[in-house]
Amino acid sequence: NLLPSKLFEEYDVWNSDPYPHEEWIPQVVVINLGTNDGSAGVTQEEFLNAGKKFIRTIRSKYADAQIVWAYGVMGKTYEETIRTMVEQMNSEGDTKVHCVIFDDMADNEHGALGHPNVAGHRTMADRMIAEMDQFVQW
Predict the structure, then answer these.
(1) I want to staple 117 with a disulfide (CB 3.0 to 4.6 A). Which of 24, 50, 85, 111 is the partner?
(2) Are 106 and 123 in contact (CB under 8 A)?
(3) Which tens digit of pLDDT belongs to each residue from 4-16?
């Protein structure tokens, strides 16, 4: 499994019980996956197919949620694949699937092991809010 579809579908990661998806229904689900898959040798096609499967799994639990795939702050390996994935999901009728491709981090936004620090997370949060303002009724 390239993405945690099974984990999302079946388990509460904190206690191994089935996760009660019906107890809280989000307006937005944000996915931020893909950075490590590139270094693991996952092909573009494998990533595309696994990503669409993951989105469909989320959609099966949250029929009305906006789903946003956030990506790119630590690499761009799957940028075009994610854009294609979203376009395909939209053309198949799921118009509540979006992507936000982040800019590279500025020099002052790097934290441990290349991950964003507080400033980097602030930049990403500001961008996510601006993007989601276009399709979320706050």
Answers:
(1) 111
(2) yes
(3) 555 555 555 556 6
